[in-house]
Amino acid sequence: MFQKDTLVKIVGEKNVTDESSTLDTYSKDLSFVNTLRPDFVIKPKNANEIAQLVKLANETKTPLVPVSSGAQHFRGDTVPGSGGAVVLDLSGMKKIMRTDRYHRVAMCEPGVTFEELIPAVEKEGIRLNLPLLPRKSKSVVGSLLEREPVTMPTYQWDISDPLACLGLIVGTGEEFRTGQAAGPGTIEEQWEAGAVQKAPYGPGSTCWHRLFQGAQGTMGIATWASIRCEILPTLEEPFLVGSPYVERLFELSHWLIRLRLVNECFILNNTNLAAIMAKNWPCDYQAIKHALPPWILFYNLAGYEYYPEERVSYRKKNIQSLTQKIAVESTKALAGISAGELLQKVHRPSEEPYWKLRYKGASHDIFFLSIADKLPGLLDAMNIEANKASYPASDIGVYIQPGVQGSSYHCEFNIFYDPQSPSEINQVSQLSTAATLSLMDKGAFFSRPYGKSTDAIMNRDAATVTALTKVKNIFDPNNILNPGKLCF
Amino acid sequence: MSIKDYRGDVEKCCRCSCCKFIPLQKVKGSKYSYACPSIAKYNFNAYSGGGRLLSMYSMLKGEMDYSEKLKEITYNCNMCGACGVSCNYAMDMQVNEPISEFRVESVKDGQTHPALEKVIEGLRKTNSMVPVKGKRGDWAAGLNLKNAAQEQVDVLFHVGCKTSFDPKMHKLAQATAKILQKAGVNFGIAGDVEVCCGGRAYQMGYEEDARSQAKKNMALIKKAGVKTVVTGCADGYQAFKVLYDKFGVKGDLEVLHISEYIDMLMKEGKLKLTQKVNMTVTYHDPCNLGRKGESYKHWKGVRKPGNRFMFDPPKDYRRGEHGVYQPPRDVLASIPGLTLSEMTRIKEYAWCCGSGGGVSESNPEFAMWTGKERIEEALSTGAEAIVTTCPWCEKNFKEAIMASGSKLKVYDIVELVEKAI
Amino acid sequence: MFLSPEVYKKFEDIVGEENICGDLAIMPSYHSGQIGAVVLPKDTEQVQAIVKLCNRLNIQFTVMSTGFIRAAMPQGCIYLDMRRMNKIIEINEKDMYAVVEPYVTSAELQAELMKRGLNCSIKGSGAQCTAIIRGHGHMDLSTGGDDRNQLGMEWVTPAGDVLKLGALGSTHEWFCGDGPGPSLRGVISGRGSGDALAEGGVITKAAMKLYHWPGPAAFELEGQSPNYNLKEIPPNFMVRYYSFPSVPQMYEAELKIGESEIMFALMGFNVAMLSANISPNMEMELEVIEKLNKEVQGPGFYVIVAANSPEEFEYDQKVLDKIISDTGGKSLAMVEDPKVGALVLIHGVRISVSIRETFRLRPVGGKAYGFQIMGQRDVNIKWIDEAANRKKELIKKGLGADDGGVYFGWSVENSHLGKTEIFFDPSPHPESLDAIIDWQQTTARKALEDHLNPPTHLPLSVVGPEVSNYHIWSKKLDEAFNPNGTTVVLPSLMG
Predict the structure, then answer these.
(1) What is the value of ipTM here, to two decimals?
(2) Which listed CATH number (3.30.70.3450, 3.40.1160.10, 3.20.20.150, 3.30.420.40) goes with C222-359?
(3) Nearest-CA residue of chain C relative to B12?
(4) For residue C194, which residues of chain B lie inside 8 Å, CB to CB?
(5) pLDDT tens, C358-386?
(6) Could you tell me if C486 and C55 are in contact, meaning their C-beta atoms sit under 8 angstroms apart?
(7) Which stretch of DSSP H or E encloses residue C317?
(8) Alpha-carbon distance C154 to B313, whole Å?
(9) Fewer CB atoms < 10 Å away: N or C end of chain C?
(10) Each residue's pLDDT tens digit, A137-171
(11) Residues of B (32-51) whose Cβ lies below 8 Å from C
């Protein structure tokens, strides 16, 4: 147990809360995990304060739950998994430490949101490889730590991209920096020497950042992250390709990425594209959804410093021969939806309300990784489970994001429901559990397990659990960091 | 020479493993990428070209001495020279020479293999590398060929031990004689006075015996007054052309393999191949006609001062570039109806037939294994026959085919030419 | 023999009589006479059994596949030679990955891939090395490098557990090596410690990311070794070498080429290495160096354009011309000769003459003094440029072999990252070796003091405290995954 006085000494009075209304907001989210109220919510301002808090937590065996993004939360990872927990809300750590065109890198603290970082880097002439329309309050560092898929797969060389380096307070309270940032020297000394925090590997032959990504705050607390950025295009030309045959769109996306012809590239079903594009609810939404073909591939061509028009032009020509071969058609607009308008949206976080909440007020997301040959079967499996649960399959939003330069696909089902309706909550919760099991049986890889299905996912790979536990024991020997999450 | 003279070469080995594979530019996939039968069969690094150099290095440094295992490793090498070609694609250092010299030194130091000892004893007694059945010249009975020891001829056809004493191989010599007659060549044979070339003895490490054979052969040639020797056997070709030159006894003798000579005769218009031989074949380059058949390069000089392994005058390394590769192919291409379908490993990076280096005598199982690998590769081309230009290859292939139950046929190139004239 | 007959028999029971050898006669061909036995496992089960037995008997083990360079070994250790694990298990064209065992070489894999219009990252140590080694190579600009090409992996841990990383652990699919949860790819090193090595343990299979290959299914070569060459450069391919008036101008061009995403390969060879690449022997190499030195205006690099269409080719060339003109680059006439360009092309794609480029002029196999630094290219160039100046001073005094004081390097992942290397060979001067070791130490200390990178050649106890105490965390990882200390990580081995 923490004593409030001690906490106040570390972070100051206004940054410690034990008001029940505040605690309540951190006790639950839109996932189906059990509600559990933390004892305190603390808002540290810097790494030093975090280190002190972690050391204190070790002494008092107090669970710490790091939270970076603002509400709404969706996946249960920020809801305490054990009693007596203290939430470390890092959303106030808002420094953008570096935006650097020459080295194509940015660096910020965990409280910095996409809404804040996007314009800051664009001012420098660079851009982030963004996830698909994150909510405005989403922490950039949080997104990187979650290995959130990104919309420009050709720029994702490794699944850990675009994360470069991490500054961390690990579970022992010690500071650790990953990759090039590790040293020698402080970050400031490195800057002075002309060094930036760009190379992700090391120090030594270990790739430490991989151990903290996907850990849901169980290994260490990030105090900053550096992010590989790409150059801001001087010209862009987006396209939509609609088809009732999703396999054709997989084929097209494969070649677009393989030949590195496009920047943004992803596939949505009509439900999700309508959810993103509808302006007037609910009439627009239904109209758009019904007017659209079942599947839509979005891709975007870009030109940079040199002869941008010519770059876009030859790519258009090359893509035309691909689309002809695959028997699909690229268009600037589809059922009244303009590719340009979608591009504008894709460059920014979602407008409020968050696009996943617009239809019914809540969305439960089931997401996993797979490969082209398996995806059609997995889409069918989801439909079967939806039918079994009497949930209209056509109401499920689907987002398919090719990743890591075309070597895998992130597939996400967005199951919309009314958060005020106990029956819908029950229906979707049961559907989620059943669908996760069914999808796993058909080869879906749940690389980022969250919420109630976590155990079922982790239990399939006992050797990994054993190995992860070893790593956990090194960085967080007293299991004070977000206990109850993943396999810890 | 002794292995001490190769210290600079062996210490230059960086254990990169290139010697285990065919030259990297020629790798066409996961199959048929290996160059060296010895490491391919026995897997431990000591069996590779580089491994052999590193073992020598250890001995030169006094860290290792002869042992039974080392002897076993030493003799389980076909002496095919493939490792050297692959190394010399990128490196300037001698590989095959120190490996060969190590054999020689092993023999000198009494580290011999009983099976090879027996063969050499036979050689010393009978001038033959194979058991003597009948007389050397029996194959020529009734062909009315000139005896070069008694009559003036332009060309001496050196038949070789295997063809002479293995009745199944007589047809090769007979075909050769027929071809030469057809082309109107004034040639002769040495008949019963022909002696072993000594090439295989040298491969086995018996340098003195090889030198002795070289002397005998050169004396015979001098006496006969011939300027040109044609061999039907790749080992013989390598011995006369390369080894005798290395021994300093070759003089200005012109040495031609029968495949080269046929090619020459055809190009001179003296031989025409007119009969159809409807067949798809693949061609196996014998090591001693191919990469090891490249001319010997005499060098005398010193290592340059400095830290580079360079010499004054520069050493012109034998990299297998100038072996006899095209003439047999041109001959095959001239046979009407015949189609050549190449294997993956050809020319300077051809996989050995398995019979070299005394292996067929010291470890027939290894020789057979190596041969089977080649037969499998030959079959992969879709060919119905494998053509070679050496009786030792032919023998090993036939045994490998019999053991593996394959239907692939084996021909010497002269058999096909005979069919085509 | 270092092992007792009883212990030897236990290992023999796992792999069979033919696949174990404890005879001292084979040891120098590995590393030293200290090895207890070399074993040749044929599959993961055998590897696991060997590793478990080592743990039970408290015997150290190490592992190597294709191998490179010799090093000392602990007395009596078990040496896993992965030669028999040489299968390409799967090539997935749609998802662009290949699953291979550790003894599949990059040459074998690339040859299979080219037939399918695909390519893989090949490390600078050469295509004869295992395809799963970490490291960097000549095509890194477009294929990336280091561990960033590894996907699913099967790892026998130092304690003998089989860990299937990522998707493999729960779905038997190889496309992803990360999760569920944190990625254990982080604890597998394999760099600087040889191919199949983890931070201990043995990688028994790995999936590698693949890339598009716009060239022919196989290079149609003419000539015999060592003079193989293409009949002609394939359509939409171009090879050039550009030299620049200064290092900053060279790097500016390199950066812009990366940023504009026009290039298949860029390799910052100095003149000596370019010459090695195209010369079949040392004498010619030295002659060519002399010729090229007269022609170049300063540091440079070669580039290979490999476009997917004629339109792309035209665009790539146009951008390249503009960048070169803006940065004061000058094309080497010699490489504009299609025959020479073709050589650079085939050697740059298959990485078939690394040994020439790095070792041919060296007297002792594999021994090299110097630095190989990955990461931020601009700061590492600056640091190595200074090291090169100190190297030149020593050369002037006769204390090092005169190679003109050169270094080399290249950009990685469209110039986001890079690799920079410098070598320095001793001269016959009696004090040369000491001078070079001192140069190494000085250069390493500069990296540390100037906050540039964690240098090699200094004790970990000196470097670690300056670099997030990573030596302490590494030790903890080692204790966790290598609890009995049975795995020995071989130093400075490649492939």
Answers:
(1) 0.96
(2) 3.30.70.3450
(3) C365
(4) none
(5) 888 887 776 678 999 999 999 999 999 99
(6) yes
(7) helix C310-327
(8) 53
(9) N
(10) 999 999 999 999 999 999 999 999 999 999 999 99
(11) 33, 39, 43-46, 48, 50-51
